[in-house]
Design goal:
about 180 residues; alpha+beta; Peroxidase, domain 1; four-stranded mixed beta sheet; about 15% strand
Amino acid sequence: MELIIAMTYGKALFDAAKELDMIDEIKEEIDAIDHILKQEPQFSELLCTPAIPAVKKKTMIREVFEGRISRQTLSFLYILVDKGRFFHYHRIVKEYLRLMDEYRGEAYGKVYSAVPLSAEQRAKLEADTGKLLDEKVRLKNKVDQSLLGGVKIMVDGKIIDATLRAKLEDLRYKLKTL
């Protein structure tokens, strides 16, 4: 149910942002709000508490955000309060970002390596992976010292395993089947 709510509200916000030509502006605003809510969990809890009337929650939101965010984003926050959906805010933001990436043909992922990759190595892996997946790919490097060598790339639930361990396992399987 939570996933459906996040998808529904994330899509509604993204569609409105696209129609208003405000995709980047709203992204920046909802990211900033998400950061604030993570830094101030008590504020987030107040906005999610059913015992506090919606009118008071909207007053709090207005006092904190009015003049700092667009009227559209402020209205969206009010809708979440009115519908009792503020609890799902973080997931809604993730869905908005996913839709934005999809709209722009971008994908984000991680590349695991035994040692840190240089900017050039990461750029080459992004280009090669992008060609393979037919998307513009951005990779974040994570060091995994348990890898013997090579890299493992994860993008949108897809795994490209070019680690030495995977190659050895493949070789072991081939030798067993001979």
